[in-house]
Amino acid sequence: MAVRSISADTMRELFAQNSGAVMLACVQFTHAQMSEPARIVNNTENIQFNGQTYIGLPFELTLPSDTEERIPTVEMRVDNVDRTLVDLLRSVDSPPGVRLDIVRVQGGVVTPEIGPLDFSLLNSDIGVDVVTLSIGYSMDILNEPAVADIFNPGLAPGLF
Do 101 and 26 touch, CB atoms closer than 8 A? Predict the structure, then answer.
């Protein structure tokens, strides 16, 4: 597992009583059936990041709890005022890929802090005012066998 480090400037901003910086989540949805990825940011205005424009759309990310019994998933609640995300979800026949970047914006300068983190869309619930998305890993690694072979006395008598 790679260690993700946050810059010293961001750590100072996170622990400061007042800050001129803001931490934003940039989310990109990709799919083979889409001509270009859909990009949104939890901001009131659009931002430029990695040479791409991320559309400002209010959303909230809920990070997973640290439990050993299940694979962690990120819950994302998006205000459904703009139907762009709903159109995206209804236009593809399989779950899109989701890329998450956490950036720091200060004085118009966008600095990447965490990411890119690549996930899949696991579930979506489209309501009148809110779209709720479950984002995580599509492979259930907790229920996968540790090895491909099954060891029994007939196959490996020396082990028994």
Answer: yes
Q: Tell me how far apart the alpha carbons of residues 102 and 14 are, in angstroms, rounded to a whole number.
A: 13
Contacts of 85 (CB under 8 A, 6+ apart): 29, 38, 40, 57, 78, 131
| Amino acid in position 7 | S
Closest to 96 in 3D by CA, of 41, 28, 148, 145: 28
Q: How far apart are CA 97 and CA 95, in angstroms?
A: 7
Cα-Cα-Cα-Cα dihedral sign, residues 118, 119, 124, 129: negative
Instruction: State the pTM of this model.
Output: 0.75
pLDDT of 88 over the 80 cut:
no
Q: Cα Rg for the chain, rounded, in angstroms?
A: 20
Number of other residues whose CB lies within 10 A of the CB of residue 68: 5
Q: What is the pLDDT of residues 29-59, one digit of tens each?
A: 888 888 888 888 988 888 999 889 998 888 8
pLDDT digits (tens, 9 = 90+) for 12-21: 877 888 888 8
Of the candidates 113, 118, 117, the residue with the CA atom closest to the CA atom of residue 5: 113
Cβ atoms of residues 74 and 135 within 8 Å? yes
3-state DSSP assignment of residue 7: coil
